[in-house]
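Most newcomers find our protein records easier to grasp once they have seen one. To make this concrete, we reproduce a full record directly below:

…
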Amino acid sequence: MPESTPNRSRIIGFLAMGAVAVTGLSAWAQPASVPAASAAAASAPQRPAAASPATTLERVEITGGRANETQQRRESTAAKIIIGRDEIERFGDSTVGDLLKRLPGVTVQGRPGRGGAIRMRGLGSGYTQILLDGERVAPGFSLDSLAPEQIERIEILRAPTAETGARAIAGTINIITREGFTKRLNDLRLTLGVENDRLQPAASWSRNDTLYGLPYSFSLSASRNDRQSDSSTVTQGRDVASDPLVLDQTDTGSVRERRQGLQASGRLQWRSEKGDAVTLMPVLIYGTGRTQRHGVLEQRVGVDPAPYALADTAADGSFTLLRMNATWMYRVGESTRVEWRAGLGQSRSANSSLRQESGGRMPRSIQDTADTRDRTLTLNAKLSRLLANEHSLVAGVEAESNRRSDTRSTLQNGQ
């Protein structure tokens, strides 16, 4: 019995400590059972709590914009290269010909600033299709009659597609003029170039805004060129059988070209809340020019005397293009879109030249006059549907009507 007393007292101590711990936990878990002093303090009037500081909201900006060149290329139904407005302005080219020379896979013949035939993939210019806002250009149209300020982007397709037709064996170059309203813009640019001590002035005006809630944009450009260049052409002929030199001539010439041009394009668009859109796109291009050439022929080997010693040529030309394009984009659902396109255009190209040869065995004059007029009407319908796995189904139909009147007269010594 005496030996169990310490154990009993030790157990009683542990129980007492456990009771105190349980009592403390109860008091902490039940804040309502507070001591009397605390209750009295709670019943006393209290000062109002200090107002919390005002919450400062950070500024949130939401911006949106068009898809860039990379996004447009990814969303396209055909592999294409897209040159956007930023890249067009980067180099500051004065002509579209100089701009196209920078594009991959495109070759432009001729001297800088003079234009020339456009070739792709090593094939001739006749195998390359040139489109303006998705429509084929009229015969006689020169890309140099467009100003780079009027171009929104250039699309290069290297192979025929259902959207461009099978006429583009080498590829298609689609030039898109300034698009609709993206931001308010009122831009006036004046440029002045000097070539061979002759001034080359140009001016362009671009404006984007809204009219009665309809976004619109237009671009107006005017230019004048006065250029002089020299050329030398060597012609040699040999007999195939015996290989002697039977002809050796050198034609040295001086050419002066004076051109004036006026270009205008615009867009007026209506858009609904669900994404339907109607767009009108007028285009006007007008240009005139005069070319004068003085040539000297030096013949070292050949029939004596030479056909001529001096040749003077004067040529005048003008080109006018007026076109109205319209598109209607209708969304059937989230993944299906129907696009209707219509275009009506008229163009005229008039040229006349007079060449006079003298100082040779047969002096002569050659007068050439040509007048070409074209009228075109195009209708297109395209259905696009987005399938699974980012694939697209595109089907379309097109109708086109062309009417051309071509008159040409050539007189030699009045005959």
